[in-house]
Amino acid sequence: MRVTGTGHASMRIDTAAGSILCDPWVNPAYFASWFPFPDNSQLDWESLGQVDYLYVSHLHRDHFDAKHLRDFVSKDATVLLPEFPTSEMEDEFRTLGFTKFLKAPNEQVVELDGGLKIMIQALTSPTDGPIGDSSLWVEYDGVRLLNQNDARPTDLSAFAELGHVHAHMLQFSGAIWYPMVYELPQAAKTAFGKQKRDRQFDRTWRYIADLKASHVFPIAGPPCFLDDELWQFNDIFGDEGNIFPDQSVFLAEYAKVGGTNGIVLLPGSVAEVTTEGATTTHPVPVEEFFANKVAHLEEMRERKRPIIEAEKASWRHPEVDVLGEMKRRIEPLLDESIYLAKGVGGPVRFDLVGYDGESVESIVVDFPGKEVRPYADEKVRYRFRTDRALIEQLLHSGEVDWVNSLFLSCRFSAARIGQYNEFVYAFFKCLSEERLQYAEGWYDEHERAVDAEDITIGDWVVQRRCPHLKADLSRFGIVEGDQLTCQLHGWRFDLASGRCLTSVGHKIRAHRADEPTPTATPEAAS
């Protein structure tokens, strides 16, 4: 099995029975904030795009690059579709001209022509990408590969049960806006960033230890930030709180925990993977490339500057009545929302900075009141501050996912009262009736589900499944004193009270191991 690195989470897998191109991302994403690093735009995409199969893990723009898919990937390719709850991905592919699809049943091995086998695991929580994320398992002639990209399954047993994996591709770096955009003292940002950076690596080590693959390939990160306004987010300043460590940092950190089987794929690197080992060739020496990272970034910044400026020039739409359009689009969704509106539980404010850089219009999405209106000098749960032009562009284009556009762009600042609230971001990811109805149904089913199994961790007996997204706490749970941390997403719980310390809701069931199991009251049982 030959694996060619094509940048970020992208790779081309070649076997005697066929080729698969995965997640090709080349063009800037999220309001021209994210670029692939190392740069992959100069690869021979005319040839790389001539494949038998195409797999895109989910609709995040650093995985689903519509322009590149339209221009460079053969329309004769069969698209391997995860079993997602909506038809959005297939609809997007059809719009781009693709006509051949294989809808892979979730976690079922499918044998393609010539003995090539694949299995796709689809994650369907509203918090997994825009209505889904997925991983791809491939086997040919006894060689097995798992492309986990940036999916976070609760465990990897579905893949491990199929036999020893020889190549494990997975994310290790950040792909979020926290904590950089929050209006916090720099010392607090650094401390929170270091915590997140450490959790990212801890989660990666756990996945690696679970699968025990012959070789580990760090992929799906980090992006680079080439706009002058965002340049400080690149991990080139010795900031221990930067959440975007690169592949060379991965190798160094992996070595500290005993890892010796890591392989970096630069764009154009080729790994020949067999049951006996892996041989890799690179376009340039890996250590030399990352030693010159700053120079590579500065060269990219100058080369991509015209692209960024052209994108910025396209965002302004002064003809858009922002308040009126937000009312028209969002109020019907507020009327239909039960779980998300209750979960947000208060007003969310948008401060829109005008073209002059000074004037500000403040608009509130009032979840309890089910309306969008001008700000009325009240307390709000969240406050977002961004350029008016970005909201104009979202409304002009009919964007249904402000998370997969505005928030991931990092072109905003934020403040909040109290804990992180996942429902805020879940709602702004679901600005269509189809998405909202799915999310409401998912939370309804999730809330009604009863997790009766308990496990013991240290001095505590806790429910086996994390209240957040059902991770197995026997594997991801760490207890320190009276607090439990689920390492899958870094959520923390106070075990004495059961209260979630990371976000509202999500209470955990727990009691000390040397105390009798509490008896549920009739009210609690109901």
From TrEMBL:
Pfam families: Lactamase_B_3, Rieske, SCP2_Rv3818
GO cellular component, one term: cytoplasm
Superkingdom per UniProt: Bacteria
Ranges for domain Rieske: 461-501
GO molecular function per UniProt: 2 iron, 2 sulfur cluster binding; hydrolase activity; metal ion binding; monooxygenase activity; oxidoreductase activity, acting on paired donors, with incorporation or reduction of molecular oxygen
InterPro entries: RibonucZ/Hydroxyglut_hydro, Rieske_2Fe-2S, Rieske_2Fe-2S_sf, SCP2_Rv3818
Alphabetical keyword list: 2Fe-2S, Hydrolase, Iron, Iron-sulfur, Metal-binding
Transmembrane domains' residue ranges: none
The keyword Iron-sulfur is assigned to this record: yes
Protein name per its UniProtKB record: MBL fold metallo-hydrolase
The organism's taxonomic lineage, starting at the top: Bacteria, Bacillati, Actinomycetota, Actinomycetes, Micromonosporales
